[in-house]
Amino acid sequence: MTETETGPAPMGRRERKKAATRQAIADAALRLFLERGYDDVGIREIADAADVSTTTLFKHFPVKEALVFDEDADQEARLLAAVRERPQSQSIPAALCEHALRYRIAAADSDARFTAFADLVNNAPALRDYLQSMWLRHTSALAQAIAEDRGLPEADPACTALAHFALEAPRAARGHEDPRQAITRAFDLLESGWHTLASGR
Predict the structure, then answer these.
(1) ∠ at Cα 168 (86, 99), nearest 5°?
(2) How far is residue 158's CA from residue 156's CA, in Å, rounded to a whole number?
(3) Residue 178 Cα distances to 52, 168, 197, angstroms
(4) How do residues 127-185 score in pLDDT, each as one tens digit?
(5) Which residues are CB-contacts of 88 (< 8 A; sequence separation ≥ 6)?
(6) What is the C-alpha radius of gyration for the chain, rounded to an integer number of angstroms?
């Protein structure tokens, strides 16, 4: 039986140890950041709390900001799934709007931990900038997923534009009295433009 039929092979001991160390570092960092604020916690303190050297910490997280966003690959997977696994009747902009509302802003009814995390990021300019650059790094992958869905060339400029503006929209909503409404309105505009392009092809 092939690996495809049985699922991915389980991690070996070395990989499990590395994953556990990475998780311990990320957990220690987030706990300290939430307790005292991002700017008031040093790298040495995080390393000590996770019982690792600073060298080991930097092997897993090359910059301090990355300690807060340790699920970058998972975020991209969820983003692409929003396009690839959406209901057949749902448009791509609508699916991406739903993703943005779910994963990129703290809802009023969010759990306390998520709200605290959102406050941590919003109160630290370095984290806000890093978060936005992280999302924009996914532009190419998202544009490719959109192009595949529509049967268009990988470098189709309309797909790239939709991907870019979909990822940029939540930042444009920052500071609005009702960010959810601001995001929804931004995606309504993207929906209108995308529909016009799609119907003209």
Answers:
(1) 25
(2) 6
(3) 42, 17, 29
(4) 988 888 888 889 999 999 999 999 999 889 999 999 999 999 888 887 788 888 999 99
(5) none
(6) 19
pLDDT digits (tens, 9 = 90+) for 38-97: 999 999 999 999 999 999 999 999 999 999 987 777 889 999 999 999 999 999 999 999
State the sign of the Cα–Cα–Cα–Cα dihedral 191, 194, 200, 201. Answer: negative
Q: Exposure of 25 by Cβ count < 10 A (0-12 exposed, 13-18 middle, 19+ buried)? A: buried
Tell which residue, 86, 110, 56, 92, has the closest CA to residue 190.
Answer: 92
- Whether 78 and 103 have beta carbons less than 8 Å apart is answered as yes
Amino acid at site 166: A
Give the position of tokens 């630290």: 124
As a whole number of angstroms, the distance between CA 200 and CA 109 comes to: 41
Q: What is the pTM of this model?
A: 0.70
Amino acid at 189: L
The answer to whether the CB of 24 falls within 8 A of the CB of 52 is yes
> Which pLDDT score, from 0 to 100, does residue 4 have?
45
